[in-house]
From TrEMBL, chains A, B:
GO molecular function annotations of the record: 2-dehydropantoate 2-reductase activity
Domain (Ketopantoate reductase N-terminal): residue spans on this chain: 10-159
Lineage of source species: Bacteria, Pseudomonadati, Pseudomonadota, Gammaproteobacteria, Pseudomonadales
Reaction(s) this enzyme catalyzes, per UniProt: (R)-pantoate + NADP(+) = 2-dehydropantoate + NADPH + H(+)
The protein's name: 2-dehydropantoate 2-reductase
Pathway terms, separated by semicolons: Cofactor biosynthesis; (R)-pantothenate biosynthesis; (R)-pantoate from 3-methyl-2-oxobutanoate: step 2/2
NCBIfam families per the UniProt record, alphabetical: apbA_panE (TIGR00745), PRK06249.1 (NF004887)
Gene3D superfamilies listed in its UniProt record: N-(1-d-carboxylethyl)-l-norvaline Dehydrogenase, domain 2, NAD(P)-binding Rossmann-like Domain
Ketopantoate reductase C-terminal domain segment(s): 192-313
Keywords carried by this UniProt record: NADP, Oxidoreductase, Pantothenate biosynthesis
Alphabetical list of Pfam families matching this protein: ApbA (PF02558), ApbA_C (PF08546)
Region forming the signal peptide: none
Length: 319, 319
């Protein structure tokens, strides 16, 4: 019932901006992609998925294999989880239902330790991987996604049957990266998922938080000396936290992300959209756990701590 | 032309909430008080000054000695400056015009080094003092002031003819405190003005800034665990900064102000009113100079630095 190795069957759990974008790109590359949807099921089943991409032009996947229930999906070899970290517990049974035996579950979420809760709720036979998406994308309406820039995905192995076999684990991660690469998407197999997550935090900690705190998108944040310095100081603290936790990030990595952001089109990070729509902010994954991990390693991150406390106040008063 | 020692003549330069409140209290205690006004001159000359006080009940000073120009004022023995720190340079000539020979100029403003610019613009013969007001008061309309709680003023000597005579200097500061005390206002003569200013910063740094950053008054800030911790962390940094600059604040001082604030009625600090009315925020006095003074003493204050940078971004985008 599952797809072949050369054309694995891919399930998208949570067809928002991230799941929708990568799902459409993979489907256009010839993969057999199945989309699980909730509120947008009817719109997508009827009208398909539309991506307004500044990189690829307008994309339209008309014949979407759309499902409103995981039980209706065929068993998938790869499952891409693009939902919010705050909903992981409720997603676990859906993932298990849609998974072929030995399936690979790739969690496309930001933050630290986002797989840990899922892991305890999934069968041991499933591989769990994490993916960090460097992309400017947001949902514009039912079945409609706007892709502004970038698109790379860095992948690492979290846990599962290959946990203790480094070589086989890495081969599987490379298989995952290969899927994206065949769809024209830049993708790196990371030897260390935790390090990959810390690297992504170098971007998310400053920009996600400051977008909410200062009600500002990337262009104004990068146009003011004070916010630029604050971004850099927060990035430097993430790098210090990573280091304290044993992850030496590549030299100049923060500067690289800072420069990438300068060249990006004006972008509102996902946390701002959550704030605007009065949804829970992903504070645990992006702030609480990194702060706790750094502290456990004897490293205080005072500016991130202050930013987190301010955001927690805003979040509590926003819902 | 000046008043007697027992009944000195007092001029109020900038009859906003602070100048208006203390001016009315002093006038009601029998002092000869003269008020300099700008936009509110006509309203006050006609209708007087009204204070809606939660402490004293409604107060009305009907026959206000009001002036629209400093040149029209009689020479005053004491001048109370209640305007924003951001306008000090333009106030200096008005102060000089209204000052009797050897007059005492008391700057009722928050922040560090707020007297320094004034000093260079005033005659050497004038005494310059600073006063720190612990009071919840705001302007409600032309000639109308709301007094919610507290009222104490701590006074210290900045510079002038008595600069090198500690005993005479302290006697003059006590004379100033005595004016307020005779009006029923708690007032302390502080031996060290810089220390007094650092003490007041323990309150202003967290509450002024967070009121703007989080659009929150004191009650919500004191009702949330995260903002409470953030307030305490910012207070602790001010205490460290003071210490680095050689000012050992009284033991438990931050805890004392924290508890006072818990018992206060819900209060919007003055910086929030400035933000709301798109006026310049007093960032130099409350943040830039304390940060620079601490840094010059080898002490970094990372959370205050982050708060300042966020506020500077907000301020730049607010005007």
């Amino acid at each position: 019932m599952t797809g072949s190795v050369s054309r694995p069957r891919i399930g998208i759990i949570g067809t928002g901006a991230i799941g929708g974008y990568y799902g459409v790109m993979l489907a256009r590359a010839g993969f057999d992609v199945h989309f699980l949807l909730r509120s947008e099921f009817a719109a997508v089943a009827e009208g398909g998925l539309h991506i307004d991409s500044a990189v690829h032009g307008p994309l339209h996947l008309s014949a979407v294999q759309a499902y409103s229930q995981a039980a209706d999906m065929p068993p998938c070899d790869w499952l891409l989880v693009g939902a919010k970290t705050t909903s992981n517990a409720s997603l676990a049974p859906l993932i298990a239902q849609a998974a072929a035996p030995g399936a690979k579950v790739l969690v496309l979420q930001n933050g630290l330790e986002v797989e840990d809760e899922l892991r305890t709720l999934l069968p041991d036979s499933l591989h769990l991987l994490g993916g960090l998406c460097f992309i400017c994308v947001h949902r514009a309406g039912p079945g409609a996604i706007v892709h502004q820039a970038l698109g790379a995905v860095n992948i690492g192995y979290h846990s599962g049957p290959l946990q203790h076999d480094a070589a086989a684990r890495q081969a599987l991660v490379e298989e995952g990266a290969g899927l994206f690469q065949r769809a024209g998407i830049e993708s790196q197999a990371m030897a260390n998922l935790q390090q990959a997550r810390w690297q992504k935090l170098v971007w998310n900690v400053p920009y996600n938080g400051l977008s909410v705190l200062l009600r500002a998108s990337t262009t104004p944040l990068m146009s003011d000396d004070n916010s630029r310095e604050l971004v850099q100081a927060l990035m430097a603290e993430v790098v210090r936290g990573a280091q304290a936790c044993g992850h030496e990030l590549p030299a100049g990595y923060a500067e690289h992300l800072f420069k990438v952001t300068e060249k990006m089109p004006d972008y509102w990070p996902s946390m701002y959209h959550d704030f605007l729509h009065k949804r829970a902010l992903e504070l645990d994954a992006v702030y609480v756990r990194p702060l706790a991990a750094a502290r456990a390693a004897g490293c205080e991150l005072p500016k991130i701590q202050a930013l987190y406390q301010a955001l927690a106040f805003i979040d509590a008063n926003n819902r």
